[in-house]
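ok trying again, last paste got cut off:
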Amino acid sequence: MNISNPKIYEQVADIILENIKSEDYQVGDKLPSIQKLSKQFGVSTASVREALNALRTIGVIEMKQGYGTFIKQIEPTFFEFGDKFNSLVQIKELLELREIVESATVANAARYRNKADLEKLATALSVMGEAVIDGTSGEKADLEFHLAIAHAAQNSLLVELLNNISELMQNSMEETRKIFIYDKQKTMTKLLEEHEMIYHAILEQDDKTAVKAMQSHLLEVKQTILANFKET
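nice, full thing came through this time. structure:
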C-alpha cells in the first residue's frame, strides 16, 4: 500500500494502529523492521521512524534496543491516575492556577520583554515546530516557552512559582500533546499555531491580544485534558 501526503508519518502510524486494533498484531508481538515497513508502505525509512516514535509516545509500542519494536498495548493511554497525577482535583487545580497566573504573566511579558526574551521564545517555538514534523511530543520546548514568558514578565517570583510546578506542567503538556497527535479533530499544527499567536502578540507588545491568545490556548488545553482524563 503506497501512500503520499505532507504528513506521511501520520498516515503510517494510523495504519499500524488500525492493524493493531483489528488484531493483526497481539500485545507482545514484534513489528517488522523499519526497512520492511518502509517497503510495505512505499515511504521513506524516516517517515516510518517518525510514525513509530508517535506510537511510542502514546504508549502503544515499545522499542527495545537491539531487539526491535514490540506491541505494548492495544489502546493509547492518556491521563490516568496513579502515574503522573494523583487525582482529578489536582489536575483541575493546576489548570486553574495556570489560567490565573499565565494570563497576567503574558500581559507583563508583552509590555516588558526584551531582545533576549524574544530569542528564547523563538527558539522554543522552533523546537516545537520540529516536533510537529517528526511526530514527537515536544513538551519540553512547550514548557520552556511558558517559562520564557515568565522571565519576559521581569518578575522573579513568577519565574519561581512556575518553576515550582514545572514538573506537573510538563507532565500535563506531554499528555495533552499525546492526544493532539491522535485526535482527528485536533492537530499538533494547531497547538503550534496557538503558541505562535502568543509569541507574535508579545513581539508586537500587544498585551490585550497576548492575554486573549493565552486564554484561548489554555481553554483548549483544559477542554482536551478534562475530556480525556480517566478515573481508575
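cool. The chain is about 70% helix and 5% strand. Confidence is low (pLDDT under 50) at residues 1-6.
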